[in-house]
Design goal:
The chain has 277 residues and is mainly β. The protein has a domain at 154-276. It contains 1 helix and 10 strands; from the N terminus they run H-E-E-E-E-E-E-E-E-E-E. The protein has one helix spanning 9-29, and strands at 146-147, 150-151, 158-162, 168-171, 176-180, 187-190, 199-204, 225-230, 248-254, 271-276. It has a 4-stranded antiparallel sheet with strand order 4-3-10-7, with no helix packed on it. The radius of gyration is 39 Å and the shape is elongated. It starts with 8 loop residues before the first helix and ends with a strand.
Length: 277
């Protein structure tokens, strides 16, 4: 053995073990494009798309699951800016599910008592859209609280039924009589809210034949006509002082020949009014 090779068996063993350890550690210390994914640590930054393709005909290609009660099955983040697919280069979303056939592209399921999930856009508000779609069909089970910026409660049709005496017989709520056949042969009503931008419709309410003369002869009192309008518009100036507001409207019931009802020779009509918000 020459002078250059005077190391004993123990020294040579240490050198060989150190070499093996270095070779074994190197792949786990640096993860570059092409390396295997490492569990429990941050992997290196990839510069190319990673594809996982399978022909699994019975299940999913990949599955991520966290069995702890704190949740956290998967998280995806990106830095995509505005512009969408029309930009050059395209501004891709952080997640895209693309079904190349005719089935579902996504499915969400939750068994809890609360909502299935949460969609937030910046600070929120009417200028932010939770999502957009080109589908115009009815979404089964979707319950919208607002339509065209209007609360659902405001979309309900309000109504009232006024009898022959000018009294409210039934109503959805909020209506009061201001003047009934006192100033003139019309009925003026406060709706309880502004009627600007609202639609009004009035019809003669159907009723059975009645005997108004007391001679046992039934008089027909379900024919005639009625007109309705908001007060204080460019077309209508209401007469009673208390009806000169944006909350008020007037209706005028007439006989079939156009004569105003007077409660004697021309019986008054029961009138049904609807307000579309």
């Amino acid at each position: 053995m020459g002078s250059s090779d005077k190391r004993g068996p123990r020294t040579r063993s240490v050198v060989i073990a150190t070499t093996i350890l270095v070779l074994g550690i190197a792949p786990f210390g640096i993860a570059a494009t092409g390396d295997a994914l490492r569990e429990g640590v941050r992997n290196g930054t990839a510069t190319k798309e990673t594809e996982i393709v399978s022909s699994n005909g019975t299940g999913y290609t990949t599955r991520q699951s966290n069995k702890s009660t704190t949740g956290g099955g998967a998280i995806y983040g990106c830095r995509s800016t505005a512009g969408g697919s029309a930009a050059n280069p395209p501004k891709n979303p952080c997640i895209r599910a693309n079904n190349l056939s005719t089935g579902f592209a996504f499915e969400f399921n939750a068994v809890g008592a609360e909502s299935a999930g949460l969609i937030t856009v910046g600070a929120g508000g009417d200028a932010k859209k939770p999502f957009t779609t080109n589908a115009t069909g009815v979404a089964t089970g979707l319950n919208a609280d607002r339509v065209d910026g209007v609360e659902a409660a405001a979309l309900k049709t309000r109504w009232l039924l006024v009898n022959e005496a000018g009294q409210i017989e039934e109503q959805s709520g909020g209506f009061t009589i201001l003047d009934a056949y006192q100033t003139n042969q019309n009925v003026y009503i406060d709706s309880g809210a502004s009627l600007e931008g609202k639609g009004l419709q009035a019809t003669i309410a159907l009723q059975n034949k009645i005997d108004t003369s007391g001679d046992g002869t039934a008089d027909i009192n379900f024919d005639g006509e009625v007109s309705v309008a908001r007060c204080q518009t460019v077309a209508v100036e209401c007469a009673p002082a208390n009806s000169k507001t944006v909350n008020a409207f007037v209706f005028s019931a007439r006989d079939s020949n156009g004569d105003a009802t007077n409660g004697t020779t021309i019986p008054r009509k029961r009138v049904y009014v609807q307000i579309t918000e």
